[in-house]
Design goal:
Elements lengths: L9 E6 L1 H9 L13 E3 L6 H14 L3 E7 H4 L3 H6 L6 E5 L12 H9 L3
Length: about 120
């Protein structure tokens, strides 16, 4: 079945408190009728299982998410899931955080693009 973006209108976020707060202040927050949030704040008490569950929820279960933003240092904790993810929707983008700069060498999407172009 072909994927479509027709009903996908929200951005989901998995990030540290500063990143999620900034994006919520920018208006990305959403609560479904059954009280499901489109964001996960990850701190030092968050388990890898919690991060994986949110990633699976945002990418497989929820059909209203168009883009998933994830802090790159958090993506490293579930790198195998990001490397295995190949769907067009939602698009998964790794972003920097205040305390962790972006490293293009770790980004799954950029590595895939480099392989396509034989680099």
């Amino acid at each position: 079945m072909a994927q479509t973006a027709a009903n996908r209108s929200f951005i989901a976020v998995i990030g540290d408190e500063d990143t999620v707060t900034g994006l919520l202040l920018a208006g990305t927050g959403h609560l479904t009728e059954d009280k499901k949030k489109n964001f996960l704040v990850v701190d030092n008490k968050s388990s890898v299982d919690d991060i994986e569950a949110a990633f699976d929820d945002f990418t497989a279960t929820r059909k209203d998410i168009a883009v998933l933003l994830i802090n790159q240092h958090i993506a490293e904790k579930i790198r195998y899931k990001l490397d295995a993810y190949t769907n067009a929707f939602p698009a998964v983008l790794e972003i920097p955080s205040k305390d962790h700069p972006y490293d293009p060498e770790k980004d799954s999407v950029l590595r895939r693009v480099r392989r396509l172009f034989g680099e």
